[in-house]
Amino acid sequence: MCLRFPLHRAAARPIPPRMRTVVRKARAGNRGFTLMELLAVVIIIGVLAATASPMFVQIMRDRRVNRTAMEISSMYRLARSRSLGRGTAVMVRWDAGTGNLDMREAASILTFPVLNSNCWTADFNTADQFRQISTLRVNGGASELASVAMLNNASEVPQVDICFTPRGRAFIRFDTNGPFAPLTTVPTFRVDNQQTGLSRTVLIPPNGAARLAL
User: Membrane-crossing residues (predicted)?
Assistant: First the structure.
């Protein structure tokens, strides 16, 4: 014979007053934000964005000035190394009117090119006497970026041809139809941000190894 005893559940204890206060505050904290609080957050975000926007634009312009100066330096260094590697004269032409740097390789009869290693005799103006290697546009307009200028003896020049030979020599001329002369000065490119005043200088020494000035 099996005896069964009734099970009695423990009576629920009343919640202490202090615990009730905690629960009530927790429930109140889950109701979300009021309209005034949301408007205050939106206003604060707008003020911060308006304050940071000019600074962000300035940083981007300065970065572009640095990048443009490095691209100019790389253009001349690449022309010099290409001349040494391919055994031909390679010229970089700066035209302030277009804001372009053109790299041209002396090679007559483009179908079966005959390389010319002499800057004096190379023809960089006749279409079938040179090969266009690349073009770098560095002057996007003063309002967009800055001004890019080529200087020789502290004077701005509108057009400059600098030619490199396989022997590591560099020649220069300021008339695109004139003869080349040995490069004995240090022509410079100056890249200026007219909005922030940041300036970067690219030096082209007589050995042709362009670099950024410190």
Answer: 38-57
Q: What is the pLDDT of residue 23?
A: 54
Determine the Cα–Cα distance for residues 193 and 200; give it in Å rounded to an integer: 9
The separation between the first and the last C-alpha atoms of the chain, rounded to the nearest angstrom, is: 104
What whole-number distance in Å separates Cα of residue 153 and Cα of residue 150?
10
Find tokens 């002499």 and name the residue: 118
Gyration radius of the chain over CA positions: 35
**pLDDT per residue over 89-126, tens digit each?**
999 999 998 889 999 999 876 666 678 889 999 999 99
What are the structural domains, with CATH classification, of the chain? 45-212 (3.55.40.10)
In Å, the largest CA–CA distance within the chain is 128
Distance of CA 37 to the CA centre of its chain: 42
How far apart, in Å, are the Cα atoms of 106 and each of 29, 81, 119, 123, 147? 78, 14, 8, 7, 30
Which parts of 62-169 are beta strand (E)?
Answer: 90-95, 100-108, 114-115, 130-137, 147-152, 155-157, 159-164
Q: Does pTM top 0.85 for this prediction?
A: no
In the beta sheet, which residues pair with residue 30? none
Look up residue 94 and give its two tokens.
């700066």
Residue 71, CB half-sphere, CA atoms under 13 Å: how many? Answer: 18
Pairing of strands 159-164, 147-152: unpaired
The band of 50, judged by pLDDT with boundaries at 50, 70 and 90, is low
